[in-house]
Specification:
The complex is a heterodimer of chains A (131) and B (123). Chain A has one domain: Rossmann fold (3-Layer(aba) Sandwich), CATH 3.40.50. Helices cover 34% and strands 19% of the residues of chain A. Chain A has 4 helices and 5 strands. In chain A, strands 2-1-3-4-5 form a 5-stranded parallel β-sheet, sandwiched between helices. In chain A, helix 1 links the parallel strand 1 and strand 2. In chain A, helix 1 crosses helix 4 and helix 2 runs parallel beside helix 3. Chain B has one domain: 3-Layer(aba) Sandwich (Rossmann fold). Helices cover 54% and strands 16% of the residues of chain B. Chain B is built from 5 helices and 4 strands, in the order E-H-E-H-E-H-E-H-H. Chain B has a 4-stranded parallel β-sheet, with helices on both faces. In chain B, helix 1 runs parallel beside helix 4. The radius of gyration of chain B is 14 Å and the shape is globular. The mean pLDDT of chain B is 94. The interface between A and B is medium-sized, with 19 and 23 residues.
């Protein structure tokens, strides 16, 4: 877990929409992100994430896996997000990103990752890291 | 009550699951989230220590049957309607680690209804 000193606290925590179909990974990363002071919405697939956005959810950052069940995968979700909510920051994580140039869709976090590294990348993207 | 009590909240709708999970976290529970029966079973079978299983509808009913057979030590809170979800979350808060729920459960219910209405309006 990142030391608290690396996190610049704010009155309104930044919100992360975490999209991951593997419940253990999702729970562990969500807990790590909450531990560094972020507010986390857990979505079990891209459809749920889109549903949250359509309901007016306003995450500052989306962290998504690529390969997930449902009507769209993580790359399709990020493509929609870029078109509709281009101001939301984006991290894509996968063990197998595929041939598409993933860097066009967001910052890439290869799996397996250390939870601390994932949280650090989230904080860096939200520019909350003091280190 | 000072020790952390773990709730596993299982609901297939993120617009219900997320506000309820945040509400329960706000009154001091440690909350894990599952979107369906399979996720809940996987979390518990993989070793997640759960004190209270909180769910609704058919998924909740099936989970309760499974938990009572396989994990009889887990307390099960089953809800029917979304209104019941808010009310039972409130009741759980009142007996939970903190003295007071973070806000009135009617406000929680209103939050959920607003989110669902916005999604429906967005098509």
């Amino acid at each position: 877990m990142l030391p608290a000193s690396q996190f610049s606290d704010t009155l309104t925590p930044n919100q992360v929409l975490l999209v991951e179909d593997e419940p253990i990974i999702r729970m562990m990363l969500a807990e790590e992100l909450r531990a560094v002071g972020l507010k986390v919405v857990e979505a079990s697939n891209a459809d749920e994430a889109w549903s949250f956005l359509q309901a007016g959810g306003k995450p500052d950052l989306i962290v998504t896996d690529i390969t997930m069940p449902g009507s769209m995968n993580g790359t399709e979700l990020m493509t929609r997000v870029i078109q509709t909510y281009p101001y939301i920051k984006r991290i894509i994580t996968s063990a197998n990103p595929g041939p598409r140039n993933i860097l066009e869709l967001g910052r890439f976090l290869p799996k397996p990752y250390r939870l601390e590294a994932a949280a650090k990348m989230a904080l860096d993207m939200l520019r909350l890291n003091q280190a | 009550m000072s020790e952390t009590i773990r709730v596993l909240l299982v609901d297939p709708d993120v617009l219900i699951r997320h506000p309820v999970a945040e509400y329960l976290r706000g009154c001091g529970y440690s909350v894990a989230e599952g979107a369906n029966l399979e996720e809940a079973r996987k979390l518990i079978s993989d070793g997640l220590a759960v004190d209270i299983l909180f769910s609704r509808g058919q998924i909740g009913f099936e989970l309760a049957q499974w938990a009572r057979a396989e994990h009889p030590n887990i307390e099960v809170v089953l809800c029917g309607s979304v209104a019941k979800v808010a009310a039972k979350a409130s009741a759980l808060c009142e007996e939970g680690p903190e003295d007071e729920p973070p806000f009135d459960h009617q406000f929680l219910l209103a939050q959920i209804k607003q989110l669902v209405a916005r999604r429906e309006a967005a098509g």
